[in-house]
């Protein structure tokens, strides 16, 4: 039971730290005053302009790279989960979406191939990120 409690506490801390980072970022960008001024001026691009790429941990340096949060979502585990949980989810998803399961249906086989590639990419990105100690 303590293993579950430890994982839960780590996940809650990671999510809380993310919320605090987002609040600090919002305040640094002007907070509600700037938001209301933008609404009054009709400048909607100003409101949603800066994406979360600055705030989120990124898996790589390329502009088209996904964030670690998106990889966690692809693996269907909460952000901040430990490596063992990530491995279990990866194996479960690969059993579900392995292309060999859909060998009789070519459309489903193509979809399963794409999904399994995304899942594998997400697993390796999260695994490397966890092993590097950047979390």
UniProtKB/TrEMBL annotation:
It holds the Pfam family DnaJ. InterPro entries: DjlA_DnaK_co-chaperone (IPR050817), DnaJ_domain (IPR001623), J_dom_sf (IPR036869). This is J domain-containing protein. PANTHER family: CO-CHAPERONE PROTEIN DJLA. Gene3D superfamilies: DnaJ domain (1.10.287.110). It comes from the Bacteria. Residues 70-135 form the J domain. It comes from Persicimonas caeni.
């Amino acid at each position: 039971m303590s293993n579950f409690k430890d994982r839960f506490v780590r996940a809650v801390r990671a999510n809380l730290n993310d919320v605090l980072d987002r609040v600090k970022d919002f305040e640094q960008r002007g907070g509600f005053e700037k938001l209301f001024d933008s609404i009054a001026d009709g400048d909607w691009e100003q409101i949603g302009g800066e994406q979360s790429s600055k705030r989120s941990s990124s898996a790589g340096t390329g502009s088209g790279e996904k964030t670690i949060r998106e990889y966690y979502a692809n693996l269907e585990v909460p952000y901040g989960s430990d490596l063992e949980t990530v491995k279990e989810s990866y194996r479960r998803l690969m059993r579900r979406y392995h292309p060999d399961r859909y060998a009789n249906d070519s459309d489903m086989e193509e979809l399963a191939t794409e999904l399994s590639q995304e899942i594998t990419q997400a697993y390796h990105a999260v695994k490397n990120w966890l092993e590097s100690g950047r979390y």
